[in-house]
Amino acid sequence: MRPFPDANSGRWQLSTGGGDAPLWARSGKELFYRAPDGAVLGVVVEVTGRTNFRASTPAKLVEGRYLASAGRMYDVSPNGQRFLMIKRVATDTTSVPREIVVVQNWLEELKRLVPAK
User: Fold this and answer.
1) Residues 56-100: pLDDT tens digits?
2) Among 11, 32, 109, 116, which residue's CB has the most CB atoms within a 10 Å radius?
């Protein structure tokens, strides 16, 4: 963790075993990151001044094998209670979906397909 805007004025490690893909909760009071084993951990951070803070011990929040690559491959809900992640699938390619359909403006599409009377 580094202070803003002068990121060179300090540096503190919050993880105990390393990690990557950090993401702050919208509340600004919790930092999530991916551990080397793929789990997502959270650290509660209380900032008490420009360079003073307290941080909890990292807690494992999500365990499992989820897709990981360069960058952050997960997101957290606005309330910080749920995660969106891509789960690894079996290597049996016969059961893997071949496409994903994304419908934008789905409410307008629904109104068009099922008009209210």
Assistant:
1) 999 998 887 777 766 778 888 898 888 888 777 666 666 666 788
2) 32
d(C-alpha 36, C-alpha 17), whole Å = 8
Q: What is the pTM of this model?
A: 0.67
Phi-psi region of 14 (alpha: psi -120 to 50; beta: other; left: phi over 0): alpha
Residue 27 is given by DSSP the state: T
Q: Would you mind telling me the total number of residues written for the chain in this entry? A: 117
Where exactly are the structural domains of the chain?
Answer: 7-89
- Which residue type does 24 have? W
Euclidean distance between CA atoms 31 and 35, whole angstroms: 12
